[in-house]
Design brief:
This protein has 2 domains: 2-79; 85-194, no CATH class. It has 6 helices and 5 strands. The chain has helices at residues 2-8, 11-34, 40-79, 85-96, 111-126, 160-171; strands spanning 102-107, 130-132, 148-152, 177-180, 189-194. Strand 1, helix 5 (111-126) and strand 2 form a beta-alpha-beta unit. Helix 2 (11-34) runs antiparallel to helix 3 (40-79) and helix 4 crosses helix 5 (111-126). The radius of gyration is 29 Å and the shape is rod-shaped.
Length: 198
Amino acid sequence: MEKLLLSALSPKVISWGGSVVLISAMLGEVAVNLIPEKRSAHRAAAFGFAALAVAGYAVERIGDDAITTRQIAAIRERLNRVISLDTHNVLVSLLKDAPKGRVIDSASMDAEATQFGDQILSVFKDAGFDATTPSFGDRAMSFTTPGAFLWIKNRNGIPAHADAILQAFESVGISLSPFQEASVPDEQTVVIAISSHP
């Protein structure tokens, strides 16, 4: 029943609907109990309202649980960008035979960005790139825009390995937005700049 409800309605609608049924059933139960003369029909109605209240509560819980599950998933996604072992292996295989060049992996001083940057650095090293990170004192405190970026020195002199990097990461669903950046050391270097999670 849960899957059927969630496939047909949004969790909020399910939760609200369950609440309305629950409140209506409780009001019906109170109304039946206020009748001074109890008859068998009153007892049956009271039982029916009690059963309806239980059903309303169950439906409300389905909606609330689905809302909570989606919120937790959104928080987890927001907290950590992760390159799984399978994704790491796919990236390494895509980049192993690609043109090589210098890559600087520059993560901002954000814990999540740093761990994501370390995972990206590992991909480049395993694929045979000359990959380094700036010393602690040379790292950016933060960037103005969240996300991950591929910086090059000059749009007119794009390093051969930049395109292969963009294509490989895009193929596994990791977007590296390309930018021209004056702080890149030279025209043969690619900088992977990692900011906070978007």
